[in-house]
Description:
Mean pLDDT: 87
Largest sheet: none
Shape: globular
Radius of gyration: 16 Å
Order of helices and strands: HHHHH
CATH superfamily: Flagellar protein FliS
CATH topology: Four Helix Bundle (Hemerythrin (Met), subunit A)
Amino acid sequence: MNPMRALRQYQKVNSHAQISEANPHRLVQMLMEGGLDRMAQAKGALERGDVALKGLMLGKAVDIIIGLRDGLNPEKTEDPASLQQLDNLYAYMTTRLMEANRDNNAEIIDEVSGLLETLKSGWDAIAGTTPQA
């Protein structure tokens, strides 16, 4: 048995278990964590010269950010202006990651990672104040 394959299978099962038990707030945290992981993997691939893997990982990070953006719910917000700013930020992050992929630019990956880390730290801070759903 291939140990790496077994590890990936375990991680997949573990992820599915976490998702099935997670509340909506935790799901957003998991998406943000996944986006940060994919950007880190893309940056590592870029540093190793693995352009194909870099593109794959940045594509996955873009998909995650698009998912976060699609999850915004204007009907459930008390502050439409802030929601629009967050939507704009997600759009900006997506555009920048596509530029990073096109230009093989690790600095842009770092920029977007920093933005997502800032959002995640705020999201993490309100974790204890949101009702369980």
